[in-house]
Amino acid sequence: MTQKTALVISAHSADFVWRCGGAIALHQQKGYDVTVVCLSYGERGESAKLWKQEGMTLDKVKIARRKEAENAARALDVHDIQFFDLGDYPLELDREAKYRLVDLIRKVQPGFMLSHSHYDPYNTDHMYATRIALEARMIAQAWGHEPGQKVLGAPQLYLFEPHQTEQMGWKPDVFLDITPVWDRKRAAIECMEGQHHLWDYYTNVAENRGNHFRRNSGGQAGGRDCRYAEGFQSVFPRTVDEL
Ligand SMILES: [Zn+2]
């Protein structure tokens, strides 16, 4: 039996924690190897608290952000976390950087992938990361790209929940019960010391999604109990033999 795997493509080094930390910890618990790639540290755009400190430099911010992300990854039992350090605000990938991501996708051969919403007018790095994820997935499937390497199948791309959900045109079609690993997600959230204002916010989001899980699994007529959940929007159709 081949090892089950998943790949998270995170624009900045903290995004994976808020948006799919539960999915990561849960799948690790189920025996998957979950790899996280942080395309940047979010050093310029998502590190305001660090920049308010005296004598701060770009390198110091990156080191602090990397440490936080590594601690969070440990809390979630992430199999492998990689930092591409491509810069943020704006995040940009040249051809070489795209091929680096394609190499990683082919190496991991993910059973499913996770990234940001298609649209995010507040944070164009996020929607850019998803565009890049789709582009890299496409290249990884191409038989003419680095012939001889194992080409990629068709992993689902799940878009995780953005901040200010309603503004992003994001609509979940999957709710994942993360109750069994909630403590791990909360511990990872608490590694994000620079973003203390988001800790309770994302606890509330998980509780609300837990409510939606209960309702959509049957509600009062036999729905499953669920205290915490994460919502995802899938990009590709499923292929099934039964509905
Ligand atoms: Zn971000």
What can be said about this structure in brief?
The protein is 39% helix and 14% strand. The chain has helices spanning 15-29, 48-51, 58-76, 95-108, 124-140, 182-189, 199-216; strands spanning 5-10, 33-38, 80-83, 112-115, 156-160, 174-177, 229-234.
Can you give a write-up of this model?
It contains 7 helices and 7 strands, in the order E-H-E-H-H-E-H-E-H-E-E-H-H-E. The chain has helices at residues 15-29, 48-51, 58-76, 95-108, 124-140, 182-189, 199-216; strands spanning 5-10, 33-38, 80-83, 112-115, 156-160, 174-177, 229-234. It has a 7-stranded mixed β-sheet, sandwiched between helices. The chain has 243 residues and is α/β, with parallel strands linked by helices. 45% of the residues are buried. The chain is 39% helix and 14% strand.
